[in-house]
Structure formats: structure tokens, C-alpha cells
Amino acid sequence: MSDAPHILVVDDHKEIRESVKRFLEKNGMRAGTARDAHDAEAKLAIGNYDLMVLDVMMPGESGLSLCQRLSAERALPIIMLTALGDDTDRIVGLEIGADDYLAKPFNPRELLARIKAVLRRSERKEKLAGGFAGKRLRFAHLVLDSDSRVLADESGNETRLTSADFKLLIVLLERARVVLSREQLLDLTAGRSAGPLDRTIDNQISRLRRKIEPDILQPKIIATVRNGGYCLSADVEVLG
């Protein structure tokens, strides 16, 4: 049982978090609960969790705000629980680092399936990034520390990347000078397919460009390929 995935369920409704906890434990997982963002951070400080199930709407700090902060600090997979039909929360959550979402009310079996899928994707990403783990990577005028997720330019100015930005940049660095479609990028970073109006990747590319491009109006590091997608137009050097 000690090797079972450890899930933190964060929801201000006691009956929801306790019922989810019981269901996960019945299905071979370990589970802890937290009633709000403050409680969640306290639990994370003393326990090792493999994934967080996080409600968007909570008193005090919202789930979206907590997700954004955690994504900038640690590589913890997060599944957001959103209100039925609330596309804004869903899209924002995915853009700031959430790995998946599920609308309330939900079937516990679907939540379990999504947890297992996100954990599998997380394991695959760790294996794919294995060649870059613990490495410093130079591209264009920048150096990325893959352990700390800190990006530094030639003048020594540093930027800490969010989880979502880091995932996207690693995918591009692993496939430097290869054109990747929006669908491929979404699959590689989030393990899902794009809907007809899904602008998640475009928004993430725009945000990442603001952190790495000398001239955001004329981006040269991440190039847009007409009718193709995006491409990292720089060579990557592993510094060790």
C-alpha cells in the first residue's frame, strides 16, 4: 500500500472531499484531504503527494490562484474541479498549469480514470525529460536550469517558469527545429486533443514568448509556421 499513489483532495465541501477520499482508498490509492488553499499548503509541507484534485471555487484563495502558485514552485500534477459548463475556469486552469479538469457534479469512476491517466502521462514525461534532468540547457541567448526551472539571459536576469511554461519549453527543446502542430503540442504537454476553438497552446506560446523573446513583436526563437504550428528555431546545447 505504501507504493500506492498518494492523492490530496482539496474542496471546501466536507462531504465531497470525504466521499472522494473513501472512493480512492477503496480503489487502492492513499488519500488526504484539505478544506482550503491554506490547509492544502500545510498538508503539502508535511506529506509527499503524487497528484492534487483541486476545486476552483473555495472561500479565501481560489483554486486557480493556488494552482498557479504551485505550478511555479513544484511539479505536482493537478486536476481541477470546475462548475458545469464554466469554460473560462477550465481554459484558465489549463493555461496556468493544471493537467486536466472535471466538471461538477462528476462520476467518481471518471475522476479515478482521469487520475490514473494523468499519473501515467506524468511518468512518461519524466522518462522523456530524463536526458535533460539535472541539466543546464543553452539555446539562443538563454540558459535553462531544468532542476530549478529558472531561465537566465546573458545579463544574468533570471525568470522562474511556471509548470505549464516549463512543460511547453521542454517539449520544444527536445524537438528543436522540428515543426509541431497545435494538436501535437497539446498532446505532448497535456495528453489531450484540441477542440475546434481551443486556443490553449496559442495562449501558452504567447506567454512563453514574453519570457524568452528579445522582441515580442518579431519572435525569432519560437517561430510560427504558417499552416503548420510552432518551431523552436535554435540549437540546444547541454552544458551539464
UniProtKB/TrEMBL annotation:
Family annotation (PROSITE patterns): OMPR_PHOB (PS51755), RESPONSE_REGULATORY (PS50110)
Swiss-Prot/TrEMBL keywords: DNA-binding, Phosphoprotein, Transcription, Transcription regulation, Two-component regulatory system
4-aspartylphosphate PTM sites in chain numbering: 55
Domain OmpR/PhoB-type, residue spans: 134-234
Keyword set includes Manganese: no
UniProt entry tagged with the keyword Phosphoprotein: yes
A Pfam family this chain is assigned to: Response_reg
Domain of life: Bacteria
DNA-binding feature ranges: 134-234
InterPro entries for this protein: CheY-like_superfamily, OmpR/PhoB-type_DNA-bd, Sig_transdc_resp-reg_C-effctor, Sig_transdc_resp-reg_receiver, WalR-like, WH-like_DNA-bd_sf
Domain Response regulatory: 6-119
PANTHER family: DNA-BINDING DUAL TRANSCRIPTIONAL REGULATOR OMPR (PTHR48111:SF4), REGULATOR OF RPOS (PTHR48111)
Protein name per the record: Response regulator
Species annotation: Hoeflea algicola
Lineage: Bacteria, Pseudomonadati, Pseudomonadota, Alphaproteobacteria, Hyphomicrobiales
